[in-house]
Structure formats: structure tokens, C-alpha cells
Amino acid sequence: MNAEARLDPHSKKLLAQWPDMQKAYAGDEYVVKIRDKEIRTSLVYTSLSGSKIRKVALPAYEDHGEQLKWLMLENVPGSFPYVAGTFAFKREGEDPTRMFAGEGDAFRTNRRFKLVSQGMAAKRLSTAFDSVTLYGNDPGLRPDIYGKVGNSGVSIATLEDMKVLYGGFDLCSPTTSVSMTINGPAPTILAMFMNTAVDQQVEKFQADNGREPTDDEVQKIREWALANVRGTVQADILKEDQGQNTCIFSTEFSLKVMGRHRRVLRAPPGAQLLFGEHFRLPHRRSGRQPDQPARIHAQQRLHLRRSVPRTRHAHR
Fold first, then answer.
1. How far apart are the C-alpha atoms of 294 and 164, rounded to whole Å?
2. Three-state secondary-structure class, residue 188
3. Closest-CA residue to 87 (of 160, 168, 30)
4. What's the number of CA atoms in the CB half-sphere (13 Å) around residue 171?
5. What is the DSSP letter of 31?
6. What is the C-alpha separation between 98 and 208, in angstroms, rounded?
7. Are strands 231-234 and 176-181 parallel, antiparallel or unpaired?
8. Which residues lie below 8 Å from residue 284, measured CB to CB, with a gap of 6+?
9. Which residues 6+ apart lie within 8 Å of 93 measured at CB?
10. Range from 151-165, 181-195, 257-271 carrying the lowest mean pLDDT
11. Do 213 and 221 touch, CB atoms closer than 8 A?
12. What is the tens place of the pLDDT at every residue in 252-281?
């Protein structure tokens, strides 16, 4: 029995695809069809010295064994085993710089976002939350909470805090994306974020038209905002369970919640959304109304830091 006959079907398929792969990466453009639309990506770029450099260079292997070994252990970007990355190419036309911030209250982190994104065409805001927020608690005087408010992350407890956090950034702009490092309270934080994006567009409508939008216009604004807002939510409960350990729900329940959340986000226009008007209720722990200025919250936190002496206490 020859060597080719001993190959499994998957290996034979990889070798059969090799000539087509060489042809696809040999030209000046890589063409892929997604949802009946052709996506063309340049395969060559010019360096500062004028040299033509290929983005992906395939090895010049002729032996089938070398080709198969390379395809199974390395392969091109975007193909298993993803040694060169999970995507075939980097996004073009967008600065890849990620602006990371998160410390103190929403006002302080907002100023930091504006500083690190100054002069950048794309606003890619990466948000870190403090452990108080990660555990779903409000800022308070409790010893195991007070010392962690705004520490190693921003403190967010209400919708008004979220509006302050991303104030000055158009969340529905195609050049704006937001990444939020959150897990247990991810559905609540994401709901606040979505409401912030919707309210931004409502306020923009009011400024452009000099009047309040009608109910139908508000619904259209909401649908458009939810369809255009961009970003990610880090809600990997398995990572929390095995690593960071900021878990407030069981693994099984967390997976069900995020699965449900995904179905809601993919609901057709006009469907009742999780982050609808019914989400704007008085905060269930602090009792503050969401329409109060967020500056009051910031001043309360500042007062806590100044008035309460720091004492040694045992961490839970």
C-alpha cells in the first residue's frame, strides 16, 4: 500500500486544496465571497523604501509530506490551527490602537478616554471596571467595598454613570467601538450601554430638529442605534471560573443568561428588547433615581474617600 492510500480523507482534502491556495495568494488581491458579497483584500503593500511586500507568503514546498505538515501545524492566517491568527487579514481603514482606561469614577475615566484617543481617527475604547462593579455591588461604606471603589477599574452603578463614561463619543459612529471587561453583571452593564447609545441619538435628533421625537421616531431611532452600535462584551464565565474568579452566578446559569442575551440582541426589529424603557427604574439598592445628575454620584464617592478613615480590614 502506497503512502497516499494511507492518508485519511481530511489530509487528502488539504493536499487537494493546496494548488487553489497557491493561486489565491499569488495575485495582488485576495477575493472571498461572504453573504453574496465579494470582499477584496490587497495582498501586497509598499514599504517606506518602495519595496513591494506580500502580506502572506506561502512556503515553496513541493513534497506532499512537507505541504501537509505545514498545513496541519501552521497554515495561513484565519485557518486551523490558527497559529497566525483567527482572521485572514487585519481590518483595513481603522487604526488598530485600543484605548484602555478605567479608574476612579466615570468623569475621571472619560477624561482619560479623551486623552488617549486625541487625534485618533478611530475611537476604540476598552473599559475596565472595578471589582465592586464586577461583583454587582454599589459603592458603599462596607469595609470590603469602600477600599475597592474605583480601584483598578471604573465604578459604574447607574445609567447616568454610563452616560458620563462615554460622554463626547458617538457610540453609533462606524469609527467608534467599545470593549467592556465585565462578566457577572454583563447583561445589566450592556443594557446601560445600549440605552446610552439610544439616548445619544435621541438627544442628537432633538438638537438637529429643535423638538422632541414622536413615539414612532423614537422607535426608529432605537432600532437604528442598536443596529449600528459596535463593540464587545467580555463575558467568558469559563475564564472567570478558572482564572479571575469574579463569579456571582453559577457557570450553568451564566451560560444560559448570555445565550438568552444573544437571542435578544438578534431579535427582529420591533421585538420587545431586554434593554427597553422598562429598564429605566430606580436603582434597586441605592434608591437613587437614574435621572439624577451623575455628578452627585461622583461627589458622593469623593466625599467617601475624604471623610472615612482608611482602616485595615480583612478581605472576604
1. 7
2. helix
3. 30
4. 30
5. E
6. 31
7. parallel
8. none
9. none
10. 257-271
11. yes
12. 887 787 777 666 655 554 443 433 332 232
Query: C-alpha cell of 293?
Result: 445628575
Residue pair 264/109 in contact (Cβ under 8 Å)? The answer is no
C-alpha distances (whole Å) from 119 to each of 60, 116, 172, 255, 299 are 43, 9, 19, 39, 30
Q: What is the grid cell recorded at 288?
A: 437613587
Q: What is the DSSP letter of 243?
A: I
Contact indicator for 180, 190 with CB cutoff of 8 Å = yes
Cell 464587545 found at:
232
Closest CA to 294 of 198, 192, 211: 192
Copy the grid coordinates of residue 70. Answer: 505545514
* Nearest residue to 3 via CA among 78, 62, 64: 64
Tell me which amino acid residue 251 is.
T
C-alpha cell at 275: 434593554
pLDDT (tens digit per residue) in 195-247: 999 999 999 999 999 999 999 999 999 999 988 998 888 777 777 777 766 77
Alpha helices (runs of H) in 124-179, residue ranges in sequence order: 131-134, 143-146, 159-165
